[in-house]
C-alpha cells in the first residue's frame, strides 16, 4: 500500500512540506516454533530486545542516506513507541535510551500502557554536571505490571569491575577500564495473571523469580578482547546476583540459583562466530581464543571466571539464543554494516521458545533501494527482536520451601 508521509521539513534554514511516496514494509512474519503445553500450568512471556538509536548518535555524518526529517528524534521517537506498542511484549529490553527521554517520554508513555521500568545511564554520567547527564544514554527494562512485580534491580558497571579486578594488568586498566558500558538487571517475580494454563497447584510456585538482564557491550571491532571480557564479567556478576537472590529467598540454604530463571538480552556488538557468543552459547571459551588478541589477561580472568581442567573459561548457565542466522540474517542494518549483533538468550531448563518475530521483508528492502536504516519507515538502525517463551515453574524459593530434586 502506498502511503504519503507529510513532514514539516526544516533543513539548512528552509521550511517546506515534503511529500515522500513510499511503500510501507509488509508486516514482519510471525514464525511458530512449538505448541504450548496444555497439560500443566505454564507462564507465557513475550520478550522484546531493541536498540532504539540514541538521538545524539543519529547524525547526518553517520546516516547521510536518511532524510534529515526522518532522522530527527521528534519523528523517530513516535515511530519507536508505536513499534513497541504494536508488539505488546511483556518484557521490553531497550538500549541507547537517553536519560531525559527515559524519564520524560518512555516511562510515562509506557506506564499508561500498564508497564513499569528501570533505567541506568552509562557510567560516564556520574562524572558529569546535571545538565549534561540527561543526554547520556543507557539501558532500560520495562515489565508488564499485571504479570510481574519488581523485587530488586542491579547495575553492573564494567569499568568498575575491570578496575577492581585489574591486579596490576596494564591491558585491563588501559583497554577494558576506560569503556563505560553497563548491564542492568531486574529481579522479577510472576503474578497469577502470568500463568496461562491455570495457576500452579503449589501457591509458592505462582511467584516464580526471573532475572531479566539487558546489556550494551562495547562497539569497536578493534576491541574484541574488551567485548569478551565485558560479557565474562557480566556472567560472573549475574551468577552472584542469582546466588544472592536464592539465599534471600531461602535463608540458610545452599544457593539454588537454577530456580531463578534467566533472560539475557542486549546489543552485544558481536557476531555469531565471536568469542562473546561462543562463551554465552556453549558455556565456555578457550583461554587462548583469538578474541583475547594474545594479551596477557589470563591471570586476571581466572579471578572473574570459572576455570575447568582444560583451562577454558566457563560459566554454569544453560543458555540458548532465541534467534539463529538462518532466521534473522541481520539485526543491525546500515550502509556500512549489516549483521547480527542483538540477542535474546534464555534458560534452556525451564523455557521453550514458541515463536519468533521474523525478519524484515528483503524484497521490500531491495525494491525500495533501502541501503541502510534509519529510514522514514524504520526508526532505528536496529530491528527489534521478539520471542514468545513458555516457562514452567522451577523451584519454589519463598517461605522456606525446599526445592524439588
Structure description:
The protein is an alpha+beta fold. The protein contains 10 helices and 20 strands. It has helices at about 70, 75-85, 100-110, 130-135, 160-165, 170-175, 225-250, 275-280, 300-305, 360-365, and strands spanning about 1-10, 15-25, 30, 45-50, 90-100, 115-120, 135-145, 150-155, 180-190, 210-215, 260-265, 285, 305, 315, 320, 330-335, 340, 340-345, 350-355, 385-390. The strands form 5 sheets. Strands 3-19-20-4-5-7-6 form a 7-stranded mixed sheet, with helices on one face. The chain has a 6-stranded mixed sheet with strand order 8-9-10-11-18-15. A 3-stranded antiparallel sheet has the order 12-14-13. Helix 7 links the parallel strand 10 (about 210-215) and strand 11 (about 260-265). The longest helix is centred in the middle third of the chain and has 26 residues, at about 225-250.
Amino acid at each position: 500500500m502506498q502511503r504519503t508521509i507529510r513532514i514539516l521539513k526544516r533543513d539548512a534554514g528552509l521550511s517546506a512540506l515534503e511529500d515522500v511516496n513510499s511503500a510501507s514494509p509488509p508486516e514482519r512474519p510471525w514464525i511458530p516454533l512449538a505448541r504450548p503445553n496444555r497439560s500443566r500450568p505454564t507462564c507465557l512471556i513475550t520478550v522484546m530486545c531493541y536498540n532504539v538509536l540514541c538521538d545524539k548518535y543519529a547524525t547526518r555524518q553517520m546516516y547521510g542516506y536518511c532524510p534529515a526529517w526522518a532522522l530527527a528524534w521528534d519523528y523517530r521517537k513516535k515511530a519507536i513507541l508505536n513499534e513497541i506498542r504494536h508488539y505488546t511484549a511483556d518484557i521490553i529490553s531497550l538500549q541507547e535510551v537517553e536519560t531525559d527521554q527515559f524519564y520524560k517520554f518512555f516511562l510515562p508513555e509506557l506506564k499508561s500502557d500498564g508497564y513499569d521500568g528501570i533505567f541506568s545511564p552509562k557510567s560516564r554520567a556520574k562524572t558529569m554536571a546535571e545538565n549534561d547527564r540527561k543526554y547520556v544514554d543507557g539501558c532500560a527494562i520495562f515489565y508488564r505490571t499485571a504479570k510481574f512485580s519488581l523485587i530488586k534491580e542491579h547495575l553492573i558497571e564494567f569499568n568498575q569491575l575491570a578496575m577492581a579486578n585489574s591486579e596490576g594488568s596494564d591491558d585491563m586498566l588501559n583497554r577494558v577500564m576506560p569503556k563505560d558500558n553497563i548491564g542492568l538487571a531486574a529481579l522479577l517475580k510472576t503474578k497469577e495473571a502470568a500463568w496461562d494454563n491455570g495457576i500452579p497447584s503449589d501457591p509458592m510456585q505462582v511467584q516464580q523469580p526471573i532475572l531479566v538482564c539487558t546489556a550494551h557491550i562495547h562497539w569497536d571491532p578493534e576491541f574484541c578482547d574488551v567485548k569478551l571480557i565485558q560479557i565474562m564479567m557480566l556472567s560472573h556478576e549475574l551468577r552472584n546476583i542469582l546466588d544472592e537472590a536464592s539465599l534471600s529467598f531461602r535463608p540458610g540454604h545452599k544457593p539454588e540459583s537454577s530456580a531463578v530463571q534467566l533472560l539475557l538480552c542486549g546489543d552485544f556488538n558481536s557476531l555469531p562466530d565471536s568469542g562473546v557468543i561462543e562463551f554465552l552459547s556453549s558455556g565456555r571459551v578457550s583461554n587462548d581464543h583469538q578474541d583475547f588478541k594474545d594479551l596477557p589477561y589470563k591471570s586476571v580472568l581466572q579471578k572473574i571466571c570459572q576455570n575447568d581442567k582444560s583451562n577454558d573459561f566457563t560459566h554454569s548457565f544453560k543458555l540458548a539464543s532465541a534467534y539463529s542466522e538462518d532466521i534473522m540474517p541481520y539485526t543491525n542494518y546500515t550502509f556500512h554494516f549489516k549483521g547480527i549483533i542483538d540477542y535474546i538468550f534464555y534458560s534452556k531448563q525451564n523455557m521453550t521458545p514458541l515463536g519468533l518475530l521474523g525478519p524484515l521483508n528483503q524484497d521490500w528492502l531491495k525494491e525500495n533501494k533501502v541501503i541502510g536504516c534509519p529510514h522514514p519507515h524504520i526508526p532505528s538502525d536496529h530491528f527489534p527482536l521478539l520471542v514468545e517463551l513458555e516457562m514452567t515453574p522451577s523451584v519454589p524459593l519463598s517461605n522456606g520451601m525446599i526445592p524439588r530434586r
